[in-house]
Write a structure and sequence with these properties.
This protein is an all-beta fold and 116 residues long. The chain has strands spanning 14-16, 22-25, 30-35, 41-46, 51-56, 62-69, 72-80, 83-86, 89-98, 101-107, 113-115. It has two domains: 1-80, no CATH class; 91-116, no CATH class.
């Protein structure tokens, strides 16, 4: 069982904006959470320089997540309709109903597919 790791011992471990949205969580080494006009997190900045950047469409559906390690682009996850692509390889599709059961299609980075 994983235990919660208390990384910060400061008084203000979590910082909120005037709308009650989390904008910093020093317990998880997050120094800034920037929101877009839809109040969705578009940039998460960590103390060590790493970033997670999200892109959304006008309806608020997540289109892409890009991970940066010290300002160098790492992995990219694209969300297209019901599928997720990890570095341009399909890795997950949302379940579909078939013959009275849901089918889950999952793959690993090597391209192996499983139907659960």
């Amino acid at each position: 069982m994983l235990e919660y790791a208390n990384l910060s011992n400061g008084q203000n471990e979590m910082v909120y904006d005037k709308n009650g949205g989390l904008i910093a969580d020093f317990d998880r080494n997050i120094c800034t959470i920037r929101k877009n006009v839809l109040f969705l997190p578009d940039t998460i900045q960590f103390v060590n320089g790493n970033q997670i950047v999200h892109r959304y469409d006008a309806m608020g559906r997540k289109l892409q997540t890009t991970y940066y390690r010290k300002r160098v682009q790492g992995s990219v996850t694209d969300y297209i309709i019901s599928a997720e692509y990890y570095n341009e390889n399909i890795c997950y599709t949302r379940p579909t109903w078939n013959n009275g059961r849901y089918l889950h299609r999952v793959s690993n980075p090597e391209g192996c597919m499983w139907y659960l």
